[in-house]
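Fold it.
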Amino acid sequence: MIYDTPKFRLMGDRALLVEVGDEIHPSVNRKVRELFLRLDREAVKGVKELVPGYRSVMIVYDPLTIAPASLQETAIRLHEEESGSHLPEPKSLEVPVVYGGRFGPDLSWVASFHGIPPEEVIRYHSRPLYQVYMIGFTPGFPYLGEIPKPIETPRRETPRTVVPQGSVAIAQKQTGIYPVQSPGGWHIIGWTPLKLFDAGKWPPTPIEIGDHVRFFSIQEKEIGRWET
């Protein structure tokens, strides 16, 4: 549900969280992106950074320049503008994945959890055109949704301390790609040779919030063809 009026949460003394809805849904995320772009175009004095999420935008600000009450008034005004902002045309990224084996150590567990063959997990996972709901956790990590209900899977009970760069994983209704080596609590079902974060390039990641991602299965012998 999209709120008629945004809800606000103070995040310390230098950030304000603007919540526009109460669920993970494309329509809620669209309002997030619209509000994010409107705030960016408004160029409010004292605003240092804007961080869009699934259903909210965090405004990082200088408390010596602008007060939270003023930011709330601005956010409400922009939220109430007529929908139809010219959002950027979404880009699409096709992501090759080597599923299972040493590349996807949790694929068999996920299949067993749902009582289906690993091939079915792969089929379900590679079927949708996913939306990039947000980028976060680590630089360039895309939160993608939603995965088909037959493979919705709770997070791992014990997170891994090291997840390899390129790992493709799922948790609850989400799937994502680890662009850098990091800890992680999602189930790793595959690996992609595509490089999703490069600090030496601009933009450093080929996808952003609002874009689309589709996975497709490849064999280990094909990895060299896709390495970037």
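The first strand starts at residue 2 and ends at 10.
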